[in-house]
Specification:
373 residues, alpha+beta, MetI-like fold, 14 helices, 5 strands
């Protein structure tokens, strides 16, 4: 009796293996709001941190008339004629005979088309590359102040773009310093235990019990008034970092305590691996996703802290330009009621903080091990 072997067609399904970071990215891009917020942050950093001189229509100190209202971008002129290229009207100054206040009305006698790559005030990109081209501008004789001007006649749009450089970078630098302090001090506390752990935890509790704003004010007030803008910038960054590391240090300690009893850590200790190697290669990578989420949520706190200090006059001071410095001009309620466009930098702060929070929410959801599939 012959045995016949039947060969069945077998469909082999190849399972594509993905790393943890690829899985996190796949989950992250499903979070639409986080993805949009990430795009907004990339644009803000690209415009305000890397190329503000090019994207700003004017230099940071170019002056026009004081308190010019924001200009309206138009496509239809006063005669009802449609223009393909957007344009603006210049302002016509008038004096109100009853209140003796200066008012500005659009001068419809001539249109000023908004052009791309217009020559304007000279600058040095990154302090090295000279240039005089700006992204947008108008012909000579016209005024382009889309967000109005401040009390000294400086363009609010240009100054807000330049302000992004300090406000966005102070958050990154401050959080990086806090990250290093939190990882090192929290790691030492979690691994050492005993007296060292008790001392560090009591120190953290004392620092966390101090009201944040008075502590910021006290430390910022200690900065000498004759320091340059650069020195004050780094001083404020260090002050915010010295205050902001405590929460991360506690989380790192708890993670280290839970991970130090794991089998892979015990095996590494059995092979006499140095403590630094165990921390860097075994412990930190196991909660690195949380660290990144913490970074995205801590950066807006740093930005708000700098804005608050500068608004109160205890942080950065002119000629430095930050969002807090710009908002300090809006402390007078009467001035704000008459010139509400001075609050536009505050809207930028809200957008930045919300964008970072949405990105943090997206990263937190994407890094959830129960959702990685």
């Amino acid at each position: 009796m012959s045995t016949m072997l039947e060969t069945a067609d077998m469909t082999v399904t190849q399972v594509e293996s993905k790393t943890q970071w690829q899985l996190i990215w796949r989950q992250f891009i499903r979070h639409r709001m986080a993805l949009v917020s990430l795009f907004v942050l990339v644009v803000l950093y690209f415009v305000g941190v890397f190329f503000p001189e090019f994207f700003a229509p004017h230099s940071v100190n170019t002056r026009f008339d004081s308190y010019l209202p924001p200009q309206r971008v138009r496509f239809v002129d006063a005669e009802g004629k449609f223009h393909i290229r957007p344009f603006v009207y210049s302002w016509k100054k008038e004096l109100d005979r009853r209140t003796f206040k200066t008012t500005y009305k659009p001068d419809t006698a001539k249109t000023y088309p908004i052009r791309l790559f217009v020559q304007g005030s000279s600058y040095k990109l990154w302090g090295m590359i000279p240039g005089d081209f700006h992204l947008i501008g108008v012909d000579e004789g016209g005024v382009l102040c889309l967000w109005g001007t401040d009390n000294l006649g400086r363009d609010m749009l240009s100054r807000s773009i330049f302000a992004l450089r300090i406000s966005l970078t102070i958050g990154l630098v401050g959080v990086l310093i806090s990250l290093v302090l939190g990882l090192v001090i929290g790691g030492i506390s979690g691994l050492a235990g005993g007296v060292v752990d008790n001392f560090i935890q009591r120190l953290i509790e004392v620092m966390m019990s101090i009201p944040t704003i008075p502590l910021w004010m006290a430390l910022a007030a200690a900065v000498p008034r004759d320091w340059s803008a650069t020195q004050v910038y780094f001083a404020i960054t260090i002050i915010l970092s010295l205050v902001g590391w405590t929460g991360l240090a506690r989380v790192v300690r708890s993670k280290f305590i839970s991970l130090r009893e794991m089998d892979f850590v015990t095996a590494a200790e059995g092979y006499n691996a140095p403590q630094s190697t165990i921390i860097v290669q075994h412990l930190i990578p196991n909660f690195l996703s949380y660290v990144f989420v913490n970074l995205t949520l801590a950066i807006p706190d740093m930005i708000l802290a700098e804005t608050s200090l500068s608004f109160l006059g205890l942080g950065l001071r002119p000629p430095a330009v930050s969002l807090g410095v710009l908002l300090s001009r809006a402390q007078d309620l009467q001035t704000v009621s008459m010139h509400p466009w001075l609050l536009i930098p505050g809207a930028l702060v809200v957008i930045i903080v919300l964008a970072f929070n949405f990105v943090g929410d997206g990263l937190r959801d994407a890094a959830d091990p129960y959702q990685l599939s």
